[in-house]
Amino acid sequence: MSDTLLRQLQDIERIATQADVITGRCPHDRTVACGNCRLEAICLPAALGPEDLERFDAIIQRGRPLHSGDHLYRQDEAFSAVFAVRSGTLKSYHLNADGREQITGFFLPGEIVGTDGIGRGCHVNSVIALETASICAIPFKQLEALSSEVPDLLHRVMSLLSDEILREQRLLALLTSCDADQRIAAFLLRISARCTDLQHSATRLRLPMSRSDIGSYLGLRVETVSRAFTRMHKQGLIAVAGKEVTLLQLDKLRAMVSEG
Q: How many whole angstroms separate alpha carbon 215 and alpha carbon 112?
């Protein structure tokens, strides 16, 4: 290979790597270890020392990326693992007795999916990718065994479960005491906070979920969601361009939610 061609290939690789960093995309490298993952500080192994991190990494299973529309697992499937989202966005949903789909959550990089199956031994919800996503599977029996030996890991697991309970409580509070605009504002602020954790822009958000999905999650009709986005856009609180939403006045959005 000539020096010129080699330099060109190196330049292409460098540019692609920079693009992944800027956009938050993950190259879906199955050889990525917890110690060199960009999500280490916010994911399950956060705060583990080098030796414990190596032990944790040894139980991780990294498979092929999911593509948009692929299921991670389905409702009523046997529970065997929890999953860490390394890149992309997923949604969870529950099929009611009449076959209607109820959105129960959205999962972003660094978040843990699959805890709905811990209590019953089978999953209460289904989880599907909204875009290309890479996932780390963590076999639960091995996680339990390791947690009993590593107090910091046990504390982290309990903290994540506590966070999930708090999210459920906050969602319930939204559904019972807030109007449509307040629910949308709270939803956008939650996405913004997660983007901040990922060291992405706190104000420029990309929403891969549909307006219908957002409505199902927030207990609103899709028409109500669309009207709320339009109203907040006209008020100068947000700017909307398809799936791209820019938060123009964070303080006013926070004040709106606190009034609920």
A: 23
Angle between helix axes 140-149 and 151-177 (nearest 10 degrees) is 120
Contact 101, 93 (CB under 8 A): yes
CB atoms near residue 181 (< 10 Å): 20
Extended strands (E) in the chain:
61-62, 71-73, 81-87, 90-95, 101-107, 112-113, 126-129, 134-139, 204-206, 238-241, 244-247
Residue-wise pLDDT tens digits, 124-155? 999 999 999 999 999 999 999 999 999 989 88
pLDDT tens digit string along 211-224? 999 999 999 999 99
Instruction: Give dist(CA 75, CA 93) in Å, integer.
Output: 8
Nearest to 220 by CA among 260, 250, 180, 190: 180
Q: What's 55's DSSP letter?
A: H
Q: Which position has the higher pLDDT, 45 or 40?
A: 45
Task: Please measure the distance between the N-terminal and C-terminal CA atoms of the chain and give it in whole angstroms.
Answer: 65
Residue 209, helix vs strand vs coil: coil
HSE-CB for 38 with a 13 A CA cutoff: 17
* Separation CA 230–CA 192 (nearest Å): 19
Bridge partners of 112, per DSSP, are 84
Query: Is the pTM higher than 0.85?
Result: no
pLDDT given at position 167: 80
Instruction: Determine contact, residues 66/129, Cβ cutoff 8 Å.
Output: yes
